[in-house]
């Protein structure tokens, strides 16, 4: 992560700090961005009324209006109606001056006929999305879902399943790169949030290229390696654009639980000898992952997340982690079956079995809401390239793995605006 090269700093003072006493539901604008600046539009001087209106907001473009996007957008509406003390389910209400509802959707792209053309607040409730509805209502965003670029976002095996369960391609003309770039620029997007299906290698790179050209930050929630690919990360650094990635680590999901237990074995001197993590679910993410040829990077991401905190790396045949089956009636409920076998004092064997049941998409949104705000802080502070600490804490496959305690401490320091090691030094 590097400071933005001279001449392209986006930091602007906030001429309209909101009074936090008037608005108990709002984070303190005086400390927004840790006092290091308010908002960078990257589009010239904030002389228009529109730009003034956008100050203090975080404008996100969503790529893939699926279940994760649904939970995130529902969450923005849900927390708008809460007060800081009574808000359950957040790691931070006030993240360096940004509250959850300072995030707003500026643009959205999808390829499904039931979503393209609709206001994003309606599209999130269209099939095949099947996650829990927890927000009473989601106000109209005034943002229509645009037709994106299909590339490898759609896997042929989906056609064997009922339309209500799978993606259904729109016949609208696909967007060109120039159109996506123009949409990002015109919508004053700060951060592109990538929610494409697993295995969308070409599509993920296409949208990442658009982000680079439009000069917007990126939060990469899925396992195509961008932040953790040194060549791609260097492109973000050269362009002066921050990125947080790759592959979101859910709030209390299989990965963080498996990692914490692996770390516990290490700290308590128990040798971890064999482990598996089997996962089942009934959403399109699980349906898509039935195509094993799309899974290579997901498997690396999930397996490395655990291997990297083990006292000693396990042999490949002694660790099995991955999505295991698609069970339609589970919908967005994900069940993880975890087993760890080890040896404790006197080389005496022990084993642990755990079953975790979670709603998959709110579990990711609880982390995305902080990752997006950390990406915006990076913009405010003129940082470029992979943002090391939040990537390590929020993502399964960051450029540099840290144990979760260390990643947590560094992320909190980052949020406070204290110096934290660069990715290369972490
Ligand atoms: N739920 C979690 O906890 C979690 C954790 C880590 C990673 N992820 C990853 O996040 C991603 C999103 O998950 P989800 O559950 O929202 O998936 P989803 O299947 O519900 O949504 C994917 C969306 O992308 C759209 N899409 C497909 N190709 C596209 C293209 N080329 N351009 C634009 N849109 C396209 C689909 O129509 C769909 O709306 C997945 O890769 C998943 O593995 C989720």
Topology at a glance:
Elements: E1 2-3, H1 49-54, E2 58-63, H2 67-80, E3 103-110, H3 120-123, E4 145-147, H4 177-186, E5 191-194, H5 201-214, E6 217-220, H6 230-239, E7 242-244, H7 254-267, E8 271-281, H8 284-288, H9 296-307, E9 319-326, E10 333-344, E11 348-359, H10 360-380, E12 383-386, H11 388-394, H12 404-416
Parallel strand pairs: 2-3, 2-5, 3-4, 5-6, 6-7, 7-12, 8-9
Antiparallel strand pairs: 1-12, 8-10, 10-11
The structure holds nicotinamide-adenine-dinucleotide.
What structural keywords apply?
single chain; 426 residues; alpha/beta; Rossmann fold; Dihydrodipicolinate Reductase, domain 2; 2 domains; eight-stranded mixed beta sheet; four-stranded mixed beta sheet; 12 helices; binds nicotinamide-adenine-dinucleotide
Can you offer a commentary on this structure?
The chain is α/β, with parallel strands linked by helices and 426 residues long. The protein has two domains: 303 residues, NAD(P)-binding Rossmann-like Domain (Rossmann fold), CATH 3.40.50.720; 106 residues, 2-Layer Sandwich (Dihydrodipicolinate Reductase, domain 2). Helices cover 31% and strands 18% of the residues. It starts with a strand and ends in a 10-residue tail after the last helix. The N terminus is likely disordered.
